[in-house]
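USER: For my understanding, would you kindly supply a protein sequence with its structure tokens?

ASSISTANT:
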Amino acid sequence: MGWFSRSKGENKEKKKAGLPWMQLTSVEQMKKAIELSSEKPILFFKHSTRCNISAMALNGFQQRWEGTPEEMTIYYLDLIAHRDVSNAIAEETGVTHQSPQVVVVKNQEVVYVASHSGIDPRAALNSIKK
């Protein structure tokens, strides 16, 4: 096995290891996260565990995410289990609910929103650099 094959395999293993998701399970936790966005940007990934399109978007996000925990805190929301939190995100941010959906908040302001096939991890990261 050559160097290229080895490094490609190592990259796959890194992706399989998963992202440093914070599980979002309560409205209080969501409100605190928005407050903390004044210190470090946050990203909410709203995922429907019953939807194939949402599963594809989540997989694509995980495969292409290049951010670090120092740059942004990323939250995963199972909106089937925690629909109240999903509704509260929409209410707090003014962003109409979609699924799947990514909402990035910096300094308590929404700086990026995308849903379905429009979810782009690079664009989410770039939104915090403005």
Q: What stands out?
A: The radius of gyration is 15 Å. The helical segments are 3-16, 27-36, 52-64, 83-93, 121-127. The beta strands are 22-23, 42-47, 73-78, 101-106, 109-115.
